[in-house]
Amino acid sequence: MIITFTAILITALTAQQPTHQYFLSGNPANVDVPTQPGFLMLGGSTDVDEAFRWFLKKAGHGDIVVLRASGADGYNPYLMKLAPIDSVETILFRDKQASYDPTIHAKLKQADAIFLAGGDQWNYFRYWKDTPIETLIHEAAQRGVPIGGTSAGLAVLGQFSFTAKHDTVTSPTALANPYDEKVDIDADFLEFPQFRCLITDSHFSKRERMGRLLVFMARIRQESPCTTVKAIAIDERTAVLYEPNGQFRVVGSEAAFFLTLKNKPNLKPGQPATIPNISVQRIPANGATTRYKLAVHNGTLRQAQ
Asked: Which of 19, 31, 130, 298 could tie 86 with a disulfide, CB 3.0–4.6 Å?
């Protein structure tokens, strides 16, 4: 009897654990403001004030909803000080069950901007893919609400995403074996028309992620219907302000990289990668664009002729 009672008690306590936390700064009532579509793409680390001012202006300085699965309410005071906005609401997900909470759905339906914070993108796949949260983000974009993300939040904005299901992967590991279990790529979590056949990456130069990104692109080109694969990779403390028509601006302190792969590679499990020419544009926040081509031969990254 004691064992049975203990089991019931533990079950009851577990059931009472919150599925999410909610943080509000500003006006708790919804405000009706005109919004403009756009995508804020941040490379991670220190946030870029200029980029967020652009984002908040797109949101009509209304109600901003921040979604995350780790951390706390750090964006609330930051955004409230940055511009005269109506409110910031941070929703911290603890498990997938929260994705079916109607109170969260109501917040997203009234959001004037949605921002995906950094953390671990595998949590975003586990908690949000194929749930009402995914649907509501799409619906927000369709009604002209700006969408943004940094680090892990950036990683899920393209049609294709590195999931980090088996932890992160380094460039040497990916180049040595493009089918290493850590090279886990998923598709169609978030599906924005502007980002078809696109994959993104963050913390780019500092963490030397060029090699792994080329492998990601090659896997997509080899295994998906995409005949042209594109990528946007962004350095820390840098942002891409992306308009719905495809125009963009790079702001911050470092650079963004825009890559294109057309030729189909021939990758094989357990063998070093060989990838044909990939076109690269490096666009700094302040400076001239550099264009060049890269290729991979037998696992070695090199500049193409």
From this structure: 31
